[in-house]
Design brief:
alpha+beta; Growth Hormone, Chain: A; five-stranded mixed beta sheet; 19 helices; 20 strands; 52% helix; elongated
């Protein structure tokens, strides 16, 4: 992930020439060593701190999109927009942390103070997820305040922690410092891997307040962040703490700003042209600084396509998670939560890095192919584009089980024949049902009903055993209905009931009951008490339940309590269960699947995760190493800030697209089409820039 590579890069800056002056070290006591080695004991506290902090951040972010949808009941566009707005803010705030550390407080105090802000944000976020605490407005305010503080905390300490770890080593122990960075990177991935698997379990498998336990899913990361702060403070007496040395980033910005201002000021004067536009800063800044800034601007040109990649990459936590909610998550021995699929990325990164470094790249070199860093990055972008191509194919297959998109003056209708004999149904001269509807026949699909306005009173004609009956019902556009036909008191009757217009969210199943008995019933399933269902074909409302096999429900009638066996209620399906009889201590039922269950397995997301993770290894790690090698030692932090800002810009691009969709009245399927087209355009533009850089 972007954070992992950027933090590792920040640490390498210290190794390669950004060490504080030696004099600052001489006033420090030498830190005790680990087991007699050259490794300072203080790095153990820093590594544990980083593991806990990354667990905290990734664990919270893994369930964030589903939190917006399930807890706030926001739509997918708004949830996606807020998710990426938070991600973007996490990459803007490192600039604040760098300025605080380099110009004011130093790394140690900056980490302490911003970690406290981080903890407070987590605590506020966790409290805001308690359902009984106020209304939705209170929850939203608390959550947004919490997310802002978390973004300030995690972004602010990002450029400090790894570099602070590098500060702990003495000048001559460069090899030990290099190995420390590998351990540090491992701790980042370990925290990410474990948290993205565990927190979705805390959210979905643990119930509190009668629903998914988001308070616990946010509370555990909060506790890990408290632990991270405690561990970091515990090592205080062992750290080598360097004072602030001045912020290079500010100096570079001032130099660029002065050059532009000076050039515009002298635009109309007859002054000899200068070789480079940055030479206009020579009146105030040294030639060495100007030369180094020139090197930086050349590398920053390489960064132009980077936001396009991050716009794709960071949608794993939003669009890909939402896609997983519409898939079959049963892996036989384990049912995976949709937000758990994100754990594949850190797992695959840990697998791919040694495979690429020790196997793929040497093999390519043996084939005499010059696989330059630019070509690696271009290949990474192609793999990212291919990943979204596969995601689009999966989305098309998923949409086959969705309800049809309704247009004005159109509704959907199906017939549930609960009588003993076939019934022919005609609606206002619209011959929707070519064949008679058999008794207790599960309809294959809904039929489209055309109206002459927003609503219309329609005449329903039922032909049954040679007789014909007529019923009038008012039907509204863009609605979904079931016409239930039944026998009451020896004659045929009917009732028009409203169905769900879309799949249940988050892979839940929806179920309602029709009571065909002559007595009222109370139904209990999954520890939920349904409202009483009236006798003689009364209809209950829908209830959402977890995907499971329900064979021990209870049906309480006037004559006793009976066992209710509903069988499997599958992912994303909607069911109508008709109670037909009571005999032998059990309730006899008939179940109709109104909305088809999710039939695309979540394993089909594996290829897109494989491609995007391989693309990250080629693109992100290579890009960081290449830009690092092309910049002067004193400008590493400037390029680090530029790299992080490209991630922020990438998330901002997704935010803009997601927000533009509802304003343009775009449907979800149309939005996915627009996004896929936009990705193709962005990918083509990015590759053009890469090859332009390659041949320049």
């Amino acid at each position: 992930m972007a954070e992992k590579d950027s933090e590792l890069q920040t640490a390498k800056e210290t190794q390669a020439g950004d060490d504080p002056p030696k004099g600052d070290f001489h006033v420090q006591k030498k830190s005790p060593k680990l087991c007699g080695s050259n490794y300072p004991l203080s790095i153990a506290f820093i590594v544990v701190n980083e593991f806990c902090e990354r667990f905290s951040y990734y664990g919270m972010r893994a369930v964030l999109t589903l939190y917006f949808i399930s807890f706030f009941h926001w739509d997918e566009n708004l949830s996606t927009a807020v998710y990426h707005a938070f991600s973007a803010l996490c990459y803007f705030t490192p600039v604040i942390g760098a300025i605080m550390a380099d110009s004011w407080l130093g790394k140690y105090k900056t980490i302490i103070y911003l970690s406290i802000v981080y903890v407070v944000g987590h605590l506020i976020k966790s409290v805001g997820a308690i359902p009984s605490l106020g209304n939705q407005a209170v929850h939203v305010v608390l959550s947004m305040v919490g997310l802002f503080l978390i973004a300030l905390g995690t972004g602010g300490i990002k450029p400090c922690v790894s570099a602070f770890g590098g500060d702990q080593f003495e000048e001559e122990h460069t090899s030990e410092r290099s190995k420390f960075f590998s351990v540090f990177y491992l701790s980042i991935n370990a925290g990410s891997l474990i948290s993205t698997f565990v927190t979705p379990v805390l959210r979905g498998d643990v119930k509190c307040f009668g629903e998914d336990c988001y308070a616990l899913a946010f509370g555990v990361p909060a506790a890990l962040m408290v632990l991270a702060l405690v561990v970091f403070i515990a090592g205080s007496g062992l750290y080598r703490k360097t004072p602030p040395q001045g912020n290079v980033l500010l100096e570079v910005c001032k130099c660029i700003g002065f050059a532009i201002k000076n050039r515009l000021k002298n635009r109309s004067r007859q002054i000899p042209k200068r070789d480079h536009w940055l030479d206009w800063a020579s009146e105030q800044y040294s030639k060495q600084l100007i030369a180094e800034v020139k090197m930086v601007t050349r590398v920053l040109f390489l960064f132009l396509p980077l936001p396009m990649f991050w716009a794709l990459f960071d949608q794993q936590g939003s669009r890909w998670t939402l896609q997983a909610t519409k898939m079959n998550a049963d892996f036989g021995i384990y049912v995976l939560q949709p937000d758990q699929m994100q754990f594949l990325n850190p797992l695959l990164i840990l697998v791919f890095i040694p495979i690429f470094d020790l196997g793929l790249y040497p093999l390519i070199s043996m084939c005499k192919f010059n696989f330059t860093p630019i070509r690696k990055m271009a290949t990474g972008m192609i793999l990212a584009g291919m990943a979204f191509g596969l995601a689009a194919i999966v989305e098309v297959k998923i949409n086959e089980t969705d309800m049809p998109q309704l247009v004005p003056k159109e509704s959907l209708i199906q017939v549930l024949n609960l009588a003993k004999n076939p019934v022919q149904v005609t609606i206002q001269d619209q011959n929707l049902f070519q064949q008679p509807v058999e008794a207790f026949q599960n309809p294959d699909e809904y039929s489209h009903l055309i109206l002459n306005g927003e609503q219309q009173s329609l005449r329903f004609i039922l032909q049954h055993q040679g007789s014909s009956l007529a019923f009038n019902y008012t039907v509204k556009e863009k609605s979904v209905y079931s016409l239930i036909v039944f026998e009451a008191e020896g004659s045929l009757s009917s009732r028009l009931i409203t169905d769900l217009e879309a799949k249940p969210e988050n892979g839940l199943a929806a179920v309602r009951f029709i009571n065909g008995l002559s007595q009222d019933v109370n139904l209990t399933i999954d520890s939920k008490q349904f409202t009483p269902v009236q006798r003689n074909y009364g209809v209950s409302g829908y209830s959402l339940v977890e995907r499971d096999t329900y064979d021990n429900g209870k049906c309480i009638t006037e004559t006793g309590e009976f066992t209710l066996d509903l069988g499997l209620l599958d992912f994303g399906a909607s069911y109508t269960v008709v109670i037909t009889n009571v005999s032998g201590g059990a309730v006899q039922t008939w179940k109709s699947e109104d909305i088809k269950a999710n039939n695309v397995h979540m394993a089909w997301q594996l290829p897109q995760y494989l491609l995007i993770s391989a693309g990250e290894v080629m693109f992100s790690i290579t890009g960081l190493a290449f830009s690092y090698s092309q910049s002067p030692a004193s400008m590493k932090s400037v390029l680090q800030a530029g790299w992080l800002l490209t991630v922020a810009v990438g998330n901002t691009l997704v935010l803009v697209v997601a927000q533009a969709a509802p304003m343009a009245q775009v449907t979800e399927s149309e939005l996915d089409g627009i996004c896929n087209c936009s990705r193709s355009i962005l990918l083509s533009f990015s590759l053009f820039l890469f090859f332009l850089k390659e041949h320049s």
